[in-house]
């Protein structure tokens, strides 16, 4: 069995992580990678940030046995990386009346 980097560098941390389910860990990762309102304008076009966010959400759907939803999120993640999708204009700045 391959030893994870966490197990190799910090066995205590690995033990703590083992207390959580895969779903709980995926939720924590999704929360960590989500772009919050405060950072939205700065990161809305950041391809790596957007891809990471979508890939983490895809993992949630996989763990919930919803492969179709997971595939949609993985396609979004891929689209950010291959530049086939872009951020839409901000609704607050897009039109002037």
Description:
- By secondary structure, the chain is mostly helical.
- The protein contains six helices and no strands.
- It has helices spanning 5-9, 11-17, 22-33, 40-43, 47-63, 67-82.
- Helix 3 (22-33) runs antiparallel to helix 5 (47-63) and helix 5 (47-63) packs antiparallel against helix 6 (67-82).
- The radius of gyration is 17 Å and the shape is globular.
- It starts with a helix and ends in a 15-residue tail after the last helix.
- The mean pLDDT is 87.
Helix content: 55-70%
What's the average pLDDT?
87
Structure annotation, total helices: 6
N- to C-terminal distance:
62 Å
Shape: globular
Q: Using only CA atoms, what is the Rg?
A: 17 Å
Q: Element order, helices and strands?
A: HHHHHH
Kindly state the number of beta strands: 0
In brief, what are we looking at here?
By secondary structure, the chain is mainly alpha-helical. It is 63% helix and 0% strand.
List the helices and strands and how they pair.
Layout (H helix, E strand, L loop, with lengths): L4 H5 L1 H7 L4 H12 L6 H4 L3 H17 L3 H16 L15
Helix pairs in contact: 3-5, 5-6
